[in-house]
Amino acid sequence: RERDEKFHNEFRKMHDYGNWSPISPEMLNYIIALLAFSVGYPGVFWNTSKAFGLIFSFQMAINGGLIILSLSSFSILYKLNMCLNTEQLDAKDQFFLSIPVAFTMQIIGMSVITLSSSVVYFYGYHKFTSFLAESQHRYNIS
Fold it and tell me: Can you tell me where the transmembrane regions are (predicted)?
């Protein structure tokens, strides 16, 4: 109980350090950029396969949401590690990851999300080049 009160007091002090808002202008800019990216990047395949373009765009939007949630959760975890004194935590409260572990998990998670988009893109690119080769062969285009 006493530990919870200390945490709440520290959290209240954080409010005095500056203006807090639910979302920073930088994060809003990043969200807009991810939305534009999720529409523009799959647009390469729009003329060849509208269904694949829609699926790829949907996947990019979901990945953008995952990236935003991942960055937000890492930010919260980092702030908790900075505010809480780890010596005060009980053994049952060791679910808070240390900063190096959280940073490593963040890098691995972002890499997996990025690679998943790359795999779908290269699949579409392979289908597109095979379609071009088939069209060239069918119409004897050199």
Answer: 27-46, 53-77, 97-123
Calculated CA dihedral for residues 44, 47, 50, 55, nearest 10 degrees: -10
Mean of pLDDT values over 15-24? 65
pLDDT at 133: 87
Tokens of 92: 């049952």
The answer, yes or no, to whether residue 28 has pLDDT greater than 70, is yes
Long-range contacts of 84-91 (CB under 8 A, 24+ apart): 84/7, 84/10, 88/3, 88/6, 90/3
Enumerate long-range contacts of 61-70, CB under 8 Å, 24 or more apart: 61/35, 63/38, 63/113, 63/116, 63/117, 64/31, 64/34, 64/35, 64/37, 64/38, 66/113, 67/34, 67/110, 67/113, 68/27, 68/30, 68/31, 68/34, 70/106, 70/109, 70/110, 70/113
Phi-psi region of 85 (alpha: psi -120 to 50; beta: other; left: phi over 0): beta
* Tokens standing for residue 3: 């530990």
**Where in the chain are the domains?**
2-139
